[in-house]
Design brief:
- It contains four helices and seven strands; from the N terminus they run αβαββββββαα.
- The chain has 177 residues and is an alpha+beta fold.
- The protein has one domain (26-174): 2-Layer Sandwich (Alpha-D-Glucose-1,6-Bisphosphate, Chain A, domain 4).
- Strands 1-7-6-5-4-3-2 form a seven-stranded antiparallel beta sheet, covered by helices on one side.
Length: 177
């Protein structure tokens, strides 16, 4: 009886691994928000990593996380590294492009999993407002595929993007930098 039970568990485990292996090799997460400001007023909040504290959802996860700023002060070449003992993990970002069309960020995760993601904050003018579209694309590692069997990653990461965009909207519309 125990043998059949263990074989059943092993079969379920193997089936889960097979299903995970068939999942897409790339992930893409995207959310957007309308901000009552032109792109030029939004840009400094994203192109300068020092200005992320008021709106970034991950800055609030671990207020005591270690932060390191290097490279350019803002815009292309600005770099930011973080290390957290908590949920925020460890990684780095570098701004590859910063214009009134948007900000392109190279995002490198070290912990909890090593991964590289391409991140964009695109600005789409809509009258006197701007739609900010936040996207992140990258490889879907096998561990991510397995996690995706149990957790809706788009919903989980999308919630953080939505929260960050709402805080960015509030920050920009208040006029604080």
């Amino acid at each position: 009886m125990i043998t059949y039970f263990l074989l059943g568990i092993a079969a379920i485990f193997v089936l889960m691994l097979i299903i995970a292996a068939t999942m897409p090799n790339t992930v893409r997460y995207e959310r957007s928000a309308i901000i009552a400001a032109p792109p030029a007023r939004i840009l400094p909040h994203i192109a300068d990593f020092h200005n992320w504290k008021p709106w970034s959802p991950w800055e609030k996860m671990d207020p005591s996380m270690k932060r390191d700023y290097s490279g350019a002060a803002s815009g292309k070449g600005a770099k930011y590294g973080w290390a957290s003992a908590g949920k925020a993990g460890k990684g780095s970002m570098e701004i590859l492009e910063a214009t009134d069309r948007g900000v392109h960020v190279d995002l490198q995760f070290v912990k909890p999993f090593r991964n590289a993601c391409d991140t964009w904050f695109k600005f789409e003018p809509e009258g006197s407002n701007t739609r900010v579209v936040w996207t992140m694309t990258g490889p879907n590692l096998f561990i991510g595929k397995v996690m995706g069997l149990f957790i809706n990653m788009d919903k989980m990461i999308g919630k953080d993007f939505e929260s960050g965009l709402a805080e960015l909207k509030t920050t920009v519309e208040k006029g604080t930098v």
